[in-house]
Amino acid sequence: MGLNLNLRNNARLVMPYAGMIMVECLDVGMSTLSKASMSRGMSHYVFVVYSNAIGTLILLPSSLLFFRSNRPPLTFSLLCRFFLLGLVGITLMQNCIFTGINLSSPTLGSALGNLVPAFTFILAVISRVEKVDMRSRGSQLRVLGSLVSITGAFIVTLYKGPSIGTTPSSNLSQIPTNFNSLTASNWVLGGLFLAAGSLSLSIWYTLQAATLKKYPAEMIVVSFNCFFGTIQCAIVALILEKDPTAWTLKPDLEHLSIFYSSVIGSVVTPCVMTWCIQQKGPVFVAMFKPLGIAIAAWMGVLFLGDTLYLGSVVGAIIIVIGFNGVIWGQSKEDTRRIREGNDDGIGSSTVFIDKAPLLQNFFLRRSV
């Protein structure tokens, strides 16, 4: 009995970390496939519509079946909240990010994506979704670790340095190499779109956490997000995409990228992220964003044969140091909350099994 209880406690503490690391790894694969498809001429407006539409077809029936017996009642105010979540977290965020990359470059997109942790932290504290006591050692470590991780992510993105294992080159760059091919106005406009996309994602994290306190059925929340987002994205695509042939998909890569994006990007990662938001809070989820750049750099070397540069190594080390600081601070906060008995179900790992119906409940009950 004591062994089973220890296993439950360990799983409850470890699973949010493992889930978010998995999300960042899956996002790297999704970004690679989608960029390859769009470089062949696929419209990003169409891509977003198709991937979310297939995700809705998978999610909505599954979630209603999964919660058929103990589904909380849906009200008009909740549907309006789901509509807003779809608008912010899918329609605005995805379209702003893809538009910004088209106007500027993927490098700038990666750099400005690291604004998400800072935006989320500020919004969560302002909205009181995340409780931060700067007198606490754990909170201090979380803030410092997040700043260190963001710094490392900027180094990976903006500083290349000499290559490792080959003859050093003189390409020490702090701006993208294709900057001269872009007009200054497009570069600035693209940066504004990317910053807006990062802010939209941060708002989604915060609103999602508040929504889960009112309606703790993660899969249904994600399903309606995707459903409303699909409708909104389709309206945007019909207005902005003037070429009717853009809706015709080319075989192979485009089909594969949409299938991967719909299953991974619209089903798996939003469900895992929503569950982690309920368990640990929006700031915890956002802090994993810089980790994705380090994962992308190393996966590019291992699977795509990319050259490893000094900036990637130095930045990845800094990211790992900051990331460990965040984890250390979070563990101290969890210990303090357990000791003080201040568990509110959001922003803490001390959530009991009946509050985690999506993943944790399933695995833990099977282990008993």
From TrEMBL:
Family annotation (InterPro entries): EamA_dom, EmrE-like, WAT1-related
Membrane topology, record value: Multi-pass membrane protein
Residue ranges occupied by any EamA domain in the UniProt entry: 30-157, 190-323
Record's subcellular location: Membrane
Domain of life: Eukaryota
Key words of the record: Membrane, Transmembrane, Transmembrane helix
Transmembrane domains' residue ranges: 12-33, 45-67, 79-101, 107-129, 141-159, 187-207, 219-239, 259-277, 284-303, 309-329
Pfam (any one): EamA
GO cellular component, one term: membrane
Predominant localisation class: membrane
GO MF annotation, one: transmembrane transporter activity
Coiled-coil portions: none
Family statement: Belongs to the drug/metabolite transporter (DMT) superfamily. Plant drug/metabolite exporter (P-DME) (TC 2.A.7.4) family.
Protein name: WAT1-related protein
Organism expressing this protein natively: Protea cynaroides
